[in-house]
Design a protein that fits this description.
five-stranded mixed β-sheet; 20 strands; about 15% strand; Alpha-N-acetylglucosaminidase; NAGLU_tim-barrel; GH; hydrolase; NAGLU_N
């Protein structure tokens, strides 16, 4: 494939981000810039990221391991943004030398550059295994890779994060995955440029340790945790116990798996998102703390409205235990994992209607959730799905504002993951000024002029 003539002939083409991959609002980038600086300081060293990037290359196309050379470059080389740069290797004329040099601000950027090159210069396709997997037969043999234009190609991210997954993916898709399958998925994420994935595996083992601090035994949690294929709804307070109980061996194995997942994500320069406490508690908490303010939510599509599974327990935000439990949960994660990326997902009333529609109550709930997170991590940012605003007519403008404005601006980010069908940002004045991430179909423009062809934005 003649890359210059083929690419120059493409004036417009469309590219859809995969399901639940989105770009963040450019209006909100300034609000989260302090966190971006913290994450830049704490990102894995270049040597670690390069090793991780070469590992992905070797797993993807080992026959061409020596055909590429990777470099980490500072953001200043990209005008202060995240980017990758594809160029012909200066030593490519010599036998056995790398042919293509790919530089990027993180390992994810490098690998998305590798994918870009394989796709648009070699006609390859990299997808999930169920949709074809890595189709690399069109890639020329080592020593015959197509050259890019002399000026090289620079691709910049217009915003810092590309998000992936939603809170139910763990049960829809990931419930029975082992490390081998997770490794393939993380490789796929990096090649697609994803750098903000949820990391929800193993949290039940963390909760077990947290609730032990509050005198709740492991056996008491048999009524709290759902089975692996139903954990998403157990975690969000929609149901409890259904499909359980969870054996201790499974809890321990999932925690080990989570540590491997997080380690690889950090090595690649990703920003994994950890869970936080929303107020969903086991029934046993009411017995251990009889004076605690605990209420039961309504039925959520549960079989026969059976109380064994429905009507989960919610700790009131005004109860002092709320912040204490929220803080302990974040601290336990930091203890187990050694670090975080300072972004935590917490979904309040996801497909459950709040017991009170008083804006002051809703505001106090949001403020207390964030207080529990921030008291353990001063750099914390709360990431919340916007699905509840789409699903439940309870959320009128006054109630939405009460929740969205309950924390300082820049400390809450909303995921508008149904935006391709029902964009909430368009009907809520862009979430009333709260930074958000939305799902879009993007248009790419290629100019045939060599003078500007080397700069492409996505």
């Amino acid at each position: 494939m003649d890359s210059i003539s083929a690419m120059s002939s493409l004036i417009f083409f469309f590219c859809s981000f995969f399901y639940y991959v989105a770009n963040s609002s450019t209006l909100g980038v300034n609000y989260v810039s302090p966190l971006l600086k913290v994450q830049e300081r704490e990102r894995a060293p270049s040597s670690v990221q390069l090793t991780a990037a070469y590992g992905v290359l070797n797993r993807l196309i080992p026959s061409h391991f020596s055909s590429f050379e990777f470099h980490i470059i500072p953001e200043e080389h990209c005008g202060g943004e995240f980017c990758f740069n594809i160029s012909n290797h200066p030593g490519s004329a010599r036998d056995g030398s790398p042919e293509i040099l790919i530089s990027g601000t993180t390992a994810v950027d490098i690998l998305s550059g590798l994918h870009w090159y394989l796709k648009y210069w070699c006609g390859a396709h990299i997808s999930w295994r169920k949709t074809g997997g890595a189709q690399l037969a069109s890639v020329p043999d080592p020593g015959s890779l197509p050259a890019v234009q002399d000026a090289g190609v620079i691709v910049k991210r217009p915003v810092p994060w590309s998000y992936y997954q939603n809170a139910v993916t763990s049960s829809y898709t990931f419930a029975w995955w082992d490390w081998e399958r997770w490794e393939k998925e993380i490789d796929w994420m990096a090649l697609q440029g994803i750098n903000l994935p949820l990391a929800f595996t193993g949290q039940e083992a963390i909760w077990q340790k947290v609730f032990k601090n509050f005198n709740i035994s492991s056996s008491n949690l048999d009524d709290f945790f759902g089975g692996p294929a139903f954990l998403a709804w157990s975690r969000m307070g929609n149901l409890h116990k259904w499909g359980g109980p969870l054996p201790q061996s499974w809890l321990d194995q999932q925690l080990i798996l989570q540590k491997k997942i997080l380690a690889r994500m950090y090595e690649l320069g990703m920003t994994p998102v950890l869970p936080a406490f929303s107020g969903n508690v086991p029934a046993a908490l009411e017995r251990v703390f009889p004076s605690a303010k605990i209420s039961r939510l309504g039925n959520w599509f549960t079989v026969n409205s059976d109380p064994r599974w429905c009507c989960t327990y919610l700790l009131d935000a005004t109860d002092p235990l709320f912040v204490e439990i929220g803080k302990t949960f974040i601290e336990q994660q930091l203890k187990e994992y050694g670090r975080s990326s300072h972004i935590y997902n917490c979904d309040t009333f996801d497909e459950n209607t709040p017991p009170v529609d008083d804006p002051e109550y809703i505001s106090s709930l949001g403020a207390t959730i964030f207080e529990g997170i921030q008291s353990a991590d001063s750099d914390a940012v709360w990431l919340m799905q916007g699905w509840l605003f789409t699903y439940d007519p309870f959320w009128r403008p006054t109630q939405m504002k009460a929740l969205l404005h309950s924390v300082p601006r820049g400390k809450l980010i909303v995921l508008d993951l149904y935006a391709e069908v029902k964009p909430i940002w368009a009907t809520s004045k862009q979430f009333y000024g709260t930074p958000y991430i939305w799902k879009v179909t993007l248009l790419f423009f290629f100019c045939a002029s060599d003078a500007v062809f080397n700069v492409i934005k996505f």
